[in-house]
Each structure stands twice: as structure tokens, then as C-alpha cells.
Write a structure and sequence with these properties.
This protein is mostly beta strands. The chain folds into three domains: 1-29; 124-231, Ferric Hydroxamate Uptake Protein, Chain A, domain 1 (Beta Complex); 232-765, Beta Barrel (Maltoporin, Chain A), CATH 2.40.170.20. The protein is built from five helices and 40 strands. The strands form seven sheets. The protein has a 22-stranded antiparallel β-barrel. The chain has a five-stranded mixed beta sheet with strand order 8-13-14-11-12, with no helix packed on it. A hairpin with a 6-residue loop joins strand 23 and strand 24 (416-439). The longest helix has 14 residues, at 2-15.
Length: 766
């Protein structure tokens, strides 16, 4: 530890001397007085985000963050009058006599008996059974130095981001596989129908307003089979007229680039938004290019609701130094949504979306793959409230179509293999959530809410596959045609308790659920392919692998897997300035267990043959804990300290390979005036696999420390942000790959290397 500390100090002194002196000057020498504070709801004492604060008769102002905190720089005379405004609260003016810490309470505009229609994106978590939920406001994403969605999510406790050899990013929550986590972008499901895996590298972080992570496998409204949880990505809405341009320059490697722009127009009840972005990343000596032309969207506020239409195009391409390997994929989506009242029915949410995905892959002269899919998803839901009862009923239908062509030839023989696939599935389901809330007069037990969630669905599956194998003068052709239909049911029961003591608020929740997952289209495809004895000639298998493969062939088909999920969680909040100098302190934790029956697992044989199979039983036990503290007046600024950790135990590393059992993250964010400094650290334990009774370490402990220094200034109607970021401060490895030292056991990972970045963001808001 002392060696690392000395290395860090020497690095700061040698490489960042100018930045270091600048920071000291700003922190200790900047003399402009600052007003720090928090805006709260006067009834609930909860922080209010997005409150506009302005010094009357001046152009000086600011906005509260996601927790209601703000800092306002004022170098003029005192006293001053500050106006606080928010669309949901009454306007308030206060007099400030001198710089320091202030608290502002706002009263809601709603009067008793008045009906209020709330319009906006549907929040699954708002109607789901109590579970662990993480909400991330991306308003200040630039200040933290984040450029990719994965960098934000990777700091959320039991969440792990994995980067494939092609630079694509997948997510795991609580040890679940990537195909067991649902990812929605504005209601559009981003999981590929082929394997149900979502690629986060597509997403432009500058286009997002917030990220919500719902942990646990007990969801019913977001679909079946989401054993790990659900991720909701919410794009910005055109609520005003604005033009935003963002540019990122890689100071360590010029292939590390970002460029994005957006245009938002708002004319009374009509809104329009258009965005474009492009980025390049160096990964494993290869350059990954992503272009995103997204959120060409329009919205209209009608008398009793809101209509939204969105069109999105995304594409990825990977450039290899040799030029003999090419891979690219593209995704296009169309979405129509309506929220509000229709035919005197209130609380309706109607959505219809279509998606097309195409992927091509060539590897020298022996591999040629072309895959394509299209899907349609529609749902309608009705939310209601009656006295102490509330709930949501949802009807949905999803149709998936997949076509694939694989051609594989041996470089040293005449062996030639072709595979043609036509797969289709239709999933029809209804889901409902029922809640009963009981309130007590005693604040020590203020609320008890019982919650029940049920999902009942039926999936119809069709499989058509043709394989052809050419070896010397012999050609063999096999056809496989099958139909399958299965019931998919989910059930969950939970209870939520909320209360308060003299100096704190607390909440407790418990939920128990049962979920079911049908094999993915890719599972079905690989299962049949691996059953073809001709495929054995394409791979170099040992005797143990051949014996195991024949045991798998004894099964007639893959069957659905089941999971029983149990979760207990708690939170404690001090938010009344009772612990000096801490003004807000929140701790959260949970204990969970996932018990699987007929778990679908995967084993890689020979030189790459991937075989899916049903195990008997498996389990994941884990716990999470997080802490969030906010302090006012630290070096005359606002300091936020965050930390979390997760421990997981896997019953079988054959079933849950390459997943760390220990995770931790911590960050310190300090803001004063135009200056923002953020230091964060991520720790991941070793990733292991179990093969042939032997434990192999895929990677040792991962430690990554990042530092970001940002300057933000509002000049008239322009918001200008300049950010300098150093990734993996304690490392010396940059983006130049030394292939003489490269190995498959210790691959180069772009996202973990030492690099320097400079970002500029300019926003014009009218």
C-alpha cells in the first residue's frame, strides 16, 4: 500500500503539477462567497431536484441536483433576495443576509381535492413489488467524466460490466448471465432476440436523462426470465429549445474520440428532438467505431395525454489491423407510445415498437456469418387508485423472428460446414400488480404496504434448421423441424414498511418470487448444432469432453429453467442536519438468494464449441451495502461521498463462470462554484472458471482509480463545461498493445487502461 501511495504522489507531482497547483488555487485562493444549501419538500422533508434558484434583479442563478442540494456563487452586496421556482411547487422568495448554509422549504401547488394528471415515461419500478432500486440522474454526467453508460452502471454495487473481444459491453446483476437482465431504452427492449443479450456500447450517454436499475428476479411487468434485474434508460425530452454540442479528445491515443450533437425544439404543445453521435474506442489493438443517429422523436401534448413517436438507428463496426477480419452490426427501432386518458379510461399506457437487427462477421477465408432478426412488441397497461388499494394490469405480445447463415471451412482441409436457421417465437402474456397500503398515525410505523405481482404467459416456438457438411467427396445434409409451446408463469409477494424515529427515517422490505425462463433462440440453435455428430469433426475434443457431450445428447430438448428469489432489504436516512458536519447520510443494504432448477448453463468444448445444457440445481447467495453522505461547507463547497460493496457466493463455477465474488466502489465528489472534482475507485475480485475439476483464474483482482476535474460556467444562455479526466491513475499501461506479451489468458482491455481525456460541452438553452 505504501508503494502505491508513493507512486501516486510522485505521479501527481510529475505529470499533473499544473493541474495540482490550479486546484489548490481554486480551493484555497478563490475568494468569491458561496451560498450552499438544500431545497426540500416542506411536508416530506425530501430533497427536490430541478428547482431553479435566481438572485432577483440579476443574471445569477443555479439549479438543485438530484438530491435537492445546490451552491450559488455571489460576489455582490448583501442582503440579497433569492427566488425558488419549480413546476410542482409554489413560488417562494427568501432573503439571505450573508454567505453560508441555508435550507429552503417548498409547498406543493396541489390543493386538496384537485385531480392531477402526471405525464411522462412509464416507470416499471413505480408499480413493481418492493426491491432494490438504484436511480442515477445523469444531469451532471459530464462532471463525473463518464462517456459510456457502462461506466455509470459499473459503480452500482452488484453490477458487473463485461467487454467482449469485439468491444461490446454486456451487463450482469447479482451474478446473473447477460441474457437474464432486461435493458429498456425509452420502453424499447434492447436485448437481441437471438440471445437476449443487450449491448450497452450502442448507447450515447449524452442523450440520456436518467438510468434506473431494478435489482432482483421478481419483476412481472418488465417480462419473464429477468433473473438478475431490469435496467431502464430514459432519454431527454424536448422540454425547451436548445442546441448541445459535445466533443471528446483522447490525449493518450487519438483513436479515443467522441462527437455528439442534439437539437431540441419546443413550440407550445409540440416538441421535436434530433441527435447524432459518433465514437471510436481502441480495444485489443482493434478500433471499434459506433455511430448513433437516435431519438429523432416528436411529442404532442394532447388534452388528456401525451403522444410520443421515436425513430432510432444504431451501428457498430470493428476494424482489425490485418484487414482480414470484419464485423459489423446495425439496429433500427420505431416506437409509438401514448400516456394518459382514452375513452374516459384514465391511467392508460399504450406502446407499440418494431425493431430490426443485422449482423455480419467474416474471419479470413474460413468463417462467414450473416444474422438478422426482426421483432414486434406491443403492450397496454392500466393503472388505478382506489382508497388504500392501487395496482396495474398489463397485456402484452412479443413476436421474434430470426434468420441465420453460418459457413465454416477448415483452413487445412476440405471440410466445409453450412448452417441455415429459421427461428420464431410468439410470447403472449398478462401481468398485474396489486398493492394495499395501511398508514398509521404513529410516525414510528408510518406505512405498511402489501404487494402482489402475477404474470401468466404462453410462448409458442418454431425451429427450422438445415445443416450441410462436405468432407472429401461426401456431402451430408440434415434437417430439423420442431414446434414447442410452454406456459410461463411468475409470482411475487412482498411487504414494505416505512417509519421514522426522532432523528432518522427507515424502510424495510421483503419479497419472495418465482420466475421462469424459456431457452433463447440461440440456446435452441446451439443445442441442435451440438447434437449433430458431424460437428465433432470440426473440433478437437478429448475423451472426457466427448463422453460429456454424449451424456447431454441423451436429453430430448432444452427445457425452461426456474428460479426462486428471496430478498430482504433495509435503508436508514438521516437528513436533518443532526450529524455535523454531515447534512445527509443514507445507508442501504440487502440480502438475497436465487435458487435455480434446470438452470441453462454453457460449456465450451474443443476449439470453441459452445454447448447449452440443463443443470439440476444451482444457487447464488449474496449481500449488498451502500452509503451516501453529503456535507456542506467543506472547503466552502459541497462534498458527496459514496460507497458500496457486494459479496456473492456461487454454488458451481461451471454454471456461473467468470464472475467476481467480491465487488466494491467508492467516490468523492466536491463542488464549489464553477469547479467540480471527482475521484472514484472500483474493485473487482478475481474472475474464475471451473473446468475438469480445476479452478482457472481468468483475471486477478481489478483496481481502477479515476480522477476528473471539471469547470462549468453559464454565460448568458450558454452552459459551457470543460473536463479533464485521467483513467486508471495508478497504472502506466496505455492504449498501445504489445502483441509480443499478449495472451488469451491475460487480454488487453481498453476500458481498464491508463489514459487522459479532454472534453468540451456547450449548451445553448432558450
Amino acid at each position: 500500500m505504501n508503494i502505491l501511495k508513493t507512486k501516486f504522489i510522485l505521479m501527481i507531482k510529475s505529470q499533473y503539477k499544473i493541474v495540482y497547483i490550479f486546484v489548490l488555487f481554486v480551493v484555497f485562493g478563490y475568494s468569491s462567497p458561496v451560498i450552499n444549501g438544500k431545497v426540500v419538500d416542506i411536508d416530506t422533508n425530501d430533497g427536490v431536484a430541478g428547482v431553479h434558484l435566481i438572485v432577483i434583479d440579476s443574471n445569477t442563478g443555479t439549479t438543485t441536483d438530484a438530491s435537492g442540494f445546490f451552491n450559488l456563487e455571489w460576489s455582490g452586496n448583501y442582503p440579497i433576495k433569492i427566488q425558488a421556482s419549480h413546476i410542482g411547487y409554489k413560488l417562494r422568495e427568501i432573503i439571505v443576509l450573508k454567505p453560508g448554509n441555508i435550507w429552503i422549504g417548498l409547498k406543493t401547488k396541489v390543493i386538496k381535492g384537485e385531480e392531477v394528471l402526471v405525464l411522462g415515461e412509464k416507470a416499471f419500478s413505480g408499480n413493481e413489488v418492493s426491491s432494490g432500486v438504484e436511480h442515477i440522474d445523469l444531469k451532471n454526467v459530464t462532471a463525473r467524466g463518464f462517456r459510456d453508460v457502462s461506466e455509470v452502471i459499473d459503480k452500482m454495487g452488484s453490477v458487473v460490466i463485461s467487454t467482449t473481444e469485439t468491444g461490446h459491453q454486456t451487463i450482469s446483476i447479482r451474478g446473473a448471465n447477460a441474457n437474464e437482465v432486461a435493458v429498456f431504452l425509452d420502453g424499447v427492449k434492447m436485448n437481441r432476440p437471438l440471445d437476449r443479450v443487450a449491448d450497452l456500447s450502442y448507447i450515447n450517454i449524452n442523450s440520456l436523462n436518467s438510468v434506473e436499475i431494478i435489482k432482483g428476479g421478481n419483476g412481472v411487468l418488465s417480462g419473464g426470465g429477468n433473473f438478475g434485474g431490469t435496467v431502464r434508460l430514459i432519454s431527454k425530452s424536448p422540454n425547451n429549445n436548445s442546441v448541445i454540442v459535445s466533443r471528446n479528445i483522447g490525449l493518450t491515443d487519438d483513436r479515443d474520440q467522441d462527437l455528439s450533437g442534439e437539437l431540441n425544439l419546443r413550440i407550445k404543445r409540440l416538441g421535436f428532438s434530433g441527435r447524432f453521435s459518433g465514437k471510436s474506442r481502441l480495444f485489443d489493438g482493434r478500433s471499434l467505431y459506433t455511430t448513433l443517429f437516435s431519438n429523432i422523436s416528436g411529442l404532442a401534448d394532447v388534452p388528456k395525454g401525451k403522444i410520443t413517436i421515436k425513430h432510432m438507428i444504431l451501428s457498430n463496426s470493428l476494424k482489425y489491423p490485418s484487414g482480414s477480419i470484419n464485423t459489423s452490426d446495425s439496429l433500427s427501432t420505431n416506437l409509438f407510445t401514448y400516456n394518459g386518458q382514452l375513452l374516459n379510461i384514465k391511467g392508460l399506457d399504450i406502446s407499440f415498437g418494431k425493431r430490426e437487427w443485422n449482423w455480419t462477421d467474416t474471419f479470413f477465408d474460413n468463417i462467414d456469418r450473416k444474422l438478422s432478426e426482426d421483432s414486434h412488441r406491443a403492450y397496454i397497461s392500466k393503472s388505478w387508485l382506489w382508497k388504500q388499494w392501487s395496482g396495474t394490469l398489463q397485456l402484452e405480445k412479443e413476436q421474434l423472428n430470426f434468420d441465420g447463415r453460418n459457413e465454416i471451412s477448415s483452413l487445412d482441409s476440405l471440410l466445409y460446414f453450412k448452417d441455415y436457421i429459421d427461428l420464431q417465437s410468439i410470447d403472449k402474456a398478462w401481468a398485474g400488480v396489486l398493492q394495499y397500503s395501511a398508514r398509521a398515525d404513529d410516525p414510528r410505523l408510518g406505512l405498511v404496504r402489501w404487494e402482489l405481482g402475477i404474470r401468466n404467459g404462453n410462448i409458442e416456438y418454431q425451429h427450422n434448421q438445415k445443416t450441410s457438411k462436405f468432407d472429401t467427396a461426401l456431402v451430408r445434409t440434415n434437417n430439423y423441424n420442431a414446434e414447442n409451446s410452454q406456459k410461463l408463469k411468475s409470482f411475487r409477494l412482498g411487504v414494505f414498511v416505512k417509519g421514522a424515529g426522532k432523528y432518522f427515517e427507515y424502510s424495510l422490505f421483503f419479497n419472495q418470487g418465482w420466475n421462469k425462463r424459456f431457452p433463447t433462440l440461440n440456446d435452441q440453435f446451439l443445442w441442435y448444432t451440438s447434437r449433430n455428430e458431424d460437428v465433432l469433426l470440426m473440433h478437437d475434443l478429448n475423451d472426457e469432453e466427448i463422453e460429456w457431450l454424449y451424456s447431454v445428447w441423451s436429453s430430448d430438448r432444452l427445457i425452461s429453467e426456474h428460479v426462486s428469489t428471496t430478498e430482504v432489504g433495509w435503508s436508514v436516512l438521516w437528513d436533518k442536519n443532526t450529524i455535523a458536519p454531515i447534512n445527509k447520510w443514507e445507508m442501504k443494504g440487502s440480502i438475497f438468494r436465487n435458487h435455480f432448477i434446470e438452470k441453462i448453463s454453457y460449456r465450451q468444448l474443443g476449439d470453441g464449441l459452445l454447448v447449452p445444457y440443463n443443470t439440476t440445481i444451482a444457487s447464488i447467495n449474496g449481500m449488498e451495502i451502500s452509503m451516501d453522505a453529503t456535507m456542506l461547507g467543506i472547503f466552502r463547497g459541497i462534498m458527496i461521498i459514496q460507497g458500496n460493496a457486494a459479496l456473492m457466493n456461487f454454488s458451481n463455477l461451471n454454471v456461473f463462470p467468470n464472475k467476481p465474488q467480491t465487488l466494491a466502489a467508492a467516490s468523492i465528489n466536491w463542488r464549489r462554484g464553477i469547479l467540480n472534482i471527482n475521484i472514484s475507485h472500483i474493485f473487482e475480485g478475481p474472475k474464475m472458471i471451473h473446468k475438469g475439476g480445476v479452478v482457472f483464474y481468468q483475471s486477478e483482482n481489478l483496481n481502477n482509480t479515476n480522477m476528473t476535474i471539471s469547470l462549468f460556467k453559464t454565460i448568458w444562455k450558454f452552459d459551457i463545461g470543460l473536463t479533464y479526466t485521467v483513467r486508471n491513475v495508478l497504472s502506466t499501461q496505455n492504449t498501445t498493445v504489445n502483441y509480443s506479451n499478449w495472451s488469451a489468458a491475460d487480454p488487453f482491455n481498453y476500458y481498464d487502461v491508463h489514459r487522459k481525456l479532454l472534453s468540451l460541452k456547450i449548451s445553448f438553452i432558450n
